[in-house]
Design a protein that fits this description.
Elements: E1 6-8, E2 11-15, H1 22-35, H2 43-48, E3 50-57, H3 61-81, E4 84-92, H4 95-104, E5 109-113, E6 122-128, H5 137-149, H6 170-190, H7 195-206, E7 210-213, H8 217-229, E8 237-240, H9 260-268, E9 273-277, E10 284-287, H10 294-306, E11 317-321, H11 327-333, E12 338-342, H12 346-356, E13 360-363, E14 367-370, H13 379-393, H14 397-402, E15 407-414, H15 420-427, E16 436-438, E17 443-446, E18 452-457, E19 464-471, H16 476-499
Parallel strand pairs: 3-4, 3-5, 7-8, 7-9, 11-12
Antiparallel strand pairs: 1-2, 2-6, 5-6, 9-10, 13-14, 15-19, 16-17, 17-18, 18-19
Helix pairs in contact: 1-3, 1-5, 6-7, 6-8, 6-13, 7-13, 10-13, 15-16
Cofactor: Mg(2+)
Protein name: Phosphoglucosamine mutase
Domain Alpha-D-phosphohexomutase C-terminal: 433-476
């Protein structure tokens, strides 16, 4: 089977030099313009015959070679449309900073060249509308349809115009913006003006010792700059994994099983906490927590606790995707908060936040979304909330973790995209008596005791993800065996169907 670009609500991804090339980036940019940018009703821009877009990349070396594809497309569109497409180039930037820049510079949209957690041989593109939010499913579906319909002409590299130097001081402005947004949110949930500033000030006073693993030394400069904005002393910040991202000492996926070096560094440095990121830094995973699920859950619980004494209760519901832990429901019930389940993909969580007027949303893989900052997963927001929680409560990370209902979530995958029929067949191998089945995203079976199992084709890789979770009632080993047995049955069924 011929390999193709993967296009979904999570963006466009492909193998560099194979499915994703300079020419393809150029073509994607042209399609982005046709499907979205040129349809934006912007009278002022039309009068000026000028349109600004933001462009950024993560630290993968391949990104530098793909940036000119966007620049060339902008030049070609300018000539064809008689309307200058001006590219505001940020250089190395996180996805949250790119989203912020779209709104800060009042641009028509944005492009970040990144494949997030995919391996080094991959790269990709995330596309943003003029609201600073990832393009919606309808638009991405149309872009995917056009990409699959035919391949574009080979773009001659010799005609590529030079791109502008990175925008200066954008990072400092972004950090100030995030801090201010978190402060506003804390004011809202407490119902007390100035409460946010007072809580954030406690971070400086606690003098935290922190370890950072951002996949590379250059990538680490972004979270370190934000920690300094929060008042953390540079001498108290240790950066590990400081080489080039192509020689990262861990998998780019910031899952706990890949973060043993960070765990060890936290112990060796006697640090209070360790922060791990994926290359585009929308996700945040905390060490030494057992699972990435606890990053957004602790952030959400902090907001729930703060508003417990506020009669106006601005935080009434929290959208969370279908693959996140059931500990959300059990935690939220204590505070009278409703959990809204959505399809996987942060844009689905964001749409639910907008629909229900929610100020907070989450994805269990380490995605924290706070509307006062931006509608998108933001690791800087997560760091600010977690450090604020530690400073405000006076507790350690281990103490906060013990207060969360204990569930075990196991994740597996098979190297193929399962069909609706094969997933249904695999699920029927289980005892479904009394279970509820949710088919909004793949197939999820929810049992009466809140344990569940889910199969779904990935939005970002040519694989099928298999998740299973149960509350730890007796001990971890018994729970692990129960979940592992379910996964084996399902994986066996899928593999058999694939090879049939």
């Amino acid at each position: 089977m011929m390999e193709r670009l993967i296009c979904s609500v999570s963006g466009i991804r492909g193998k560099v030099g194979k499915t994703l090339t300079f020419s393809e980036v150029c073509r994607i940019t042209r399609i982005f313009y046709d499907v979205y940018l040129k349809k934006i009703p912007d009278a002022a821009a039309a009068r000026k015959r000028k349109m600004d877009i933001v462009l950024s990349r993560d630290d993968k070396a391949s990104g530098e070679g793909l940036v000119p594809g966007v620049v060339l497309a902008a030049k070609e569109i300018s000539v064809a449309e008689g309307r200058k497409i001006n590219v505001i180039y940020l250089g190395l930037a996180s996805t949250p900073a790119t989203e912020w820049a779209v709104k800060h510079y009042r641009t028509a949209g944005g492009i970040n060249i990144t494949a997030s957690h995919n391996p080094v041989g991959w790269n990709g593109i995330k596309l943003f509308g003029n609201d600073g939010i990832l393009l919606r499913e309808k638009e991405m579906r149309e872009i995917g349809r056009r990409l699959a319909s035919s391949s574009g002409p080979r773009a001659p590299a010799k005609n590529v115009p030079p791109h502008s130097p990175p925008a200066k001081k954008y990072l400092e402005q972004f950090c100030v913006h995030v801090r201010a947004g978190v402060s506003r949110a804390l004011d809202r949930v407490t119902g007390a003006k100035g409460a946010g500033s007072r809580i954030l000030e406690k971070i400086r006073k606690r003098n935290f010792r922190i370890v950072v693993d951002a996949c590379s030394g250059k990538s680490a400069e972004i979270p370190v700059r934000f920690l300094l904005e929060l008042g953390v002393k540079r001498s108290r910040i240790t950066v590990i994994n400081k080489g080039k991202i192509e020689r990262s000492r861990r998998s780019l996926e910031p899952a706990p099983q890949n973060l043993e070096n960070l765990r060890k560094a936290v112990i060796e440095k006697k640090a209070d906490i360790g922060f791990a990121f994926d290359p585009d830094q929308d996700r945040l995973v905390i060490m030494p927590l057992k699972t990435e699920e606890l990053t957004p859950l602790l952030c959400g619980r902090f907001l729930m606790e703060l508003q417990a004494g506020n009669p106006s209760k601005p935080l009434k519901q929290i959208p969370v995707n279908l693959s996140s832990t059931s500990a959300w429901e059990e935690t939220a019930e204590r505070y009278g908060i409703n959990i809204i389940r959505t399809k996987i993909g942060e844009v689905n969580v964001i749409e639910a936040m907008l629909e229900h007027g929610s100020m907070f949303g989450a994805e269990g893989n380490g995605g924290v979304i706070l509307s006062d900052v931006n509608y998108g997963r933001n690791s800087a927001t997560g760091m600010a909330l977690i450090l604020s929680y530690l400073a405000w409560s006076g507790k350690t990370l281990a103490e906060l973790e013990k207060e969360i209902p204990e569930y075990m979530l196991i994740k597996d995958k098979i190297p193929a995209l399962a069909t609706k029929e094969s997933m249904g067949s695999a699920i029927r191998m289980l005892d479904l008596k009394g279970a509820k089945i949710d088919t909004r995203d793949g197939c999820k079976v929810i049992f009466g005791d809140r344990s569940w199992v889910q199969l779904r084709p990935s939005n970002t890789e040519p694989i099928t993800r298999i998740f299973a979770e149960a509350k730890i009632e007796e001990n971890e080993e018994t729970t692990r065996k129960k979940l592992t047995a379910m996964l084996k049955v399902i994986a066996y069924s899928l593999e058999r169907r694939k090879n049939a």
